[in-house]
Design goal:
Strand content: 15-25%
Bound molecules: pyridoxal-5'-phosphate, iron/sulfur cluster
Number of strands: 10
Strand order of the largest sheet: 1-2-3-4-5-6-7-8-9-10
GO molecular function, one term: metal ion binding
Structural class: alpha/beta
CATH class: Alpha Beta
Shape: globular
Organism: Marinicella pacifica
Pfam families: Radical_SAM (PF04055)
Helix content: 25-40%
Number of helices: 12
Protein name: L-lysine 2,3-aminomutase
Distance between the termini: 51 Å
Cofactor: [4Fe-4S] cluster; pyridoxal 5'-phosphate
Number of domains: 1
Length: 321
Amino acid sequence: MHNIWQQQLKQALSGRTSEKLRQHPDFSHAGDGLFKTVITDEVNTAIKESSQPHVLLNQFLPINRETNIHPDFNQDPVGDHNALAQQGIIHKYHGRVLLVASGSCAVNCRYCFRRHFPYQKQLASRRNWQAVVSYLHNHPEVHEVILSGGDPLTLTTQSLTELTDRLIDLPHIKTLRIHSRMVTVLPDRIDGEFLNWLDALPWRKVLVTHINHADELTHKAMGSLHRLKQHSITLLNQSVLLKNVNDDADTLINLSHKLFDEGVLPYYLHLFDRVQNAAHFEVSLSRAQRIYARMRSQLPGYLLPKLVKEEAGEHSKTPLI
Ligand SMILES: *Cc1c(COP(=O)(O)O)cnc(C)c1O
Ligand code: SF4
């Protein structure tokens, strides 16, 4: 009964696919203990094929520096907790709500700003889906539902169908947005069943991928993006500006062009959120702005992502120019 992608996900979550990573000389069990090492075969492939494997390794390999504690970093840098409207619903911005639809991901990114999020207690899952529907019913100003997590595409298509079936009767919902890293890290997730589900939805559909470096675009990942494009999904990408991953203008300019080749528009370039245990990824604001100025001088406006920061209590992401 398990699809190929479900088997791959299971292997990733069980730690089997991270064995190679564990043999790396910089691997630290101390870091692993704070936030499990999870990686997929597709990322292993990307590492193998990349001429600069550190741009991928640094995103997924736990290292000793993770255990450093910094007073200016914390467990909820973007104020998600205070913005929780009710279990699993983060309603921070006008007109759109974010559902924490899944607590797991196919990879664990070491810089993840939700690495300390209490997923067990704060999930909008099958079990409390009725409460989500009631919330949306009482908020007719909401026209966009964002499935996030964790990674919502770790849910089976059957679960996704059960969720969206309940939303069909809410006339004010116009757009369904999915935030997922699966398209590139576990591209087999974009299978026929999933595409059929998307096709049957009555709303505008947006999928926001999470790609930080062009070397994440494996052959298979590009195939999945191509399939999505054929099914009339708007494809956007968000990246995080990360030290020793993508903190130079040429890398990001190249990423924008490569994304566009695959039918994806750059959406956001996030300044790293100051989440505890990940301080070594931080790029200073002044350096971020220098990198960004060069990107702007080289890219057409439509390939320039918005440089933003997520701040607690704000009504939108904060632009940094
Ligand atoms: C980023 C974010 C959104 C979406 O914001 P957009 O500017 O529409 O992309 C919604 N809710 C929360 C809590 C967010 O962090
Ligand atoms: S895929 Fe997204 S939510 Fe999951 S660990 Fe990476 S950054 Fe965090």
